[in-house]
Amino acid sequence: MQPTPSLDVNDAGLTAFLANLVRAPSPNPPGNEGLVAELMVTRLAGLGFEITTVEAAPGRPSVVARLAGSGGGPTLLFNGHMDVQPPGRHWSRDPFGATIEGRRLYGQGAMDMKAGLAAVVYAVDSLQRAGQHLAGDIIVAAVADEVCGGHLGTGFLVSEGLVQADMAVVCEPTGDAVRVAHRGALWLEVEITGKSAHGGRPWLGVNAVSKAARIITAIEDELVPSLQDRVHPLLPAPTINIGAIQGGQKFNLVADHAVFQIDRRLMPGEDADAAEAEVSRLCASVRAADGEDWSVNVRNVMHVTPGEVDPDERIVRACRTAHQTVTGKHAAIGATAGFEDAHFLLDAGIPTAMYGPYRRTAPGEDAHYTISGMADEFVDLDDVGRAARIYAHLMIDLLEKPL
Fold this sequence. Notes:
The chain is α/β, with parallel strands linked by helices. The chain is built from nine helices and 16 strands. A hairpin with a 2-residue loop joins strand 4 (99-101) and strand 5 (104-106).
């Protein structure tokens, strides 16, 4: 192997580009990733990438950019999402202002995960300015829809055969760890139909809100405890969150309709259909034990399969090596209780690591980390620059020589 060139990341350019990405609002729902996609296309085209932009639905673009190597090397895919969670209510700054204070950049999606997209772009920029030539190809997939399941983004690209690679990195903010597993998610709506009546004579009706409350209580008292013995060495047990509930019309009417939403997290090895059947059986049991006449229906809104990769896969080992090369520190093996787009790539047979080597917190503030969806989300700019250097070393390690 030739000596690794000195990799000088353009930190000022990286900061300006990340700020522009954050200032392009893309909360999902509804998504509207178009402005972010335009910024990615312009910058990647300037680096010589061949660009394809596709829409799984109107106004929901994903960008697939390929930079060809000299030939004979593998193809390395970097995946990152352009959509962000809707901003919370308690921001002390403009959530899309990309406010810089000291070495922190604040903004919705700054950490999750526009910083990852910016780091990949400027990793390539640093290699080109160093005159580094690679045998293998680099693909950057900047995708829509990840925070709502990814079916209009990475899922669409995979199903249409628009991304193929020998290995991949999902550039989520993992800190000083390489993630090798993530939980899946099953989103269910439970609809209860009762009978309306005047609030002064409630015995003439059947209250759908009350029936929903009985089902929710049964879920929390019976179903949730039954899931705790399903274990994984890196992941927490399956969980159930009641995310929203709607029902009724006014104070003095018996509610004849109610709907509530369930987020059921899935462990690797669990089946979404089986998890849905567990909820359906519980609902039917509550209904059968009740003497009143009402109905309940469970609807599958969306599901994301869990993902898991062997920690000994080359891509995982290479991420850990690049991390140690730049930081001098060991990268742990980890996992996330949330869901990511990695499962789409893994299901397509592409070994995939989840790795964004910038921290979620500033030094000394580990107890006060910010996460996606919380107010005043931020990323440390020094950590984003470090990420770009690590990604550049990863590219050299995997793509410098022909296979």
